[in-house]
TrEMBL record:
Keywords: Copper, Disulfide bond, Membrane, Metal-binding, Transmembrane, Transmembrane helix. This is SCO1/SenC. InterPro entries: SCO1/SenC (IPR003782), Thioredoxin-like_sf (IPR036249). It comes from Flavimaricola marinus. GO terms for molecular function: metal ion binding.
């Protein structure tokens, strides 16, 4: 199985089974899911999330522990994206504002899947345009691929040899908590209010 097929297969599993992984750290002593009341989907068997090393907008190497310091909404996209990425990124930023109005601090994180064009400066400007708290990350091809594998995302460069190529990619966002890691995913149809309510639930239960 080649890498593209493998990523597609993983994405199908996420869609079909709900994309939620119950890691040992999320279980109570009785074996119950500590966040069951917050989850939007069923339980899947493959781990989602994990450590990553990327480059921030200042050109500094950072890890997941450096950037995930509070409830976070993580999204993989690219700055040249004409439609889906801006809409999803704006929705995540708006959810952070809804949470702020409720007294809950959260961080939106944007990870580029297009490091060829998305330099630290480019991804930084993109993130800053959406929210002053948004963290924009990029990296080498290998670093981005490793982060994508950790979150079971799919991406592939489209046809075209010039600088105007598009990227095909999955469109889930991920709710991530410090110490726990990934706890649930967000679908495209979820509204800012939906996302905020889910993040607030996880924050209260953690």
């Amino acid at each position: 199985m080649d890498k593209t097929v493998a990523y597609i297969a993983a994405g199908v599993v996420v869609v079909a089974l709900g994309g939620t992984y119950l890691a040992t750290a999320l279980m109570t002593p009785s074996g119950e899911d500590a966040f069951a009341q917050c989850r939007g989907g069923a339980v899947a068997g493959d781990a989602i999330g994990g450590p990553f090393t990327l480059i921030d907008e200042a050109g500094q190497t950072v890890t997941d522990q450096d950037v995930i310091t509070e409830p976070s909404i993580l999204y993989f996209g690219y700055t040249f994206c004409p439609d889906v990425c801006p809409l999803d990124t704006m929705r995540n930023a708006q959810a952070v504002d809804v949470l702020a109005n409720e007294g809950i601090s959260a961080t939106p994180i944007f990870i580029s899947i297009d490091p060829e064009r998305d330099t630290p400066e480019v991804v930084g400007r993109f993130a800053d345009n959406f929210h002053d708290k948004m963290i924009g990350l990029t990296g080498s091809d290998e670093q981005v691929a490793a982060a994508s594998r950790a979150y079971r995302t799919y991406y592939r460069r489209g046809e075209g040899e010039d600088e105007f190529y598009l990227m095909d990619h999955s469109t889930f966002s991920y709710i991530v908590l410090p110490e726990y890691g990934f706890v649930d995913y967000i679908r495209r149809e979820d509204t800012p209010e939906d996302v905020a309510a889910r993040v607030a639930c996880f924050a209260a239960a953690s």
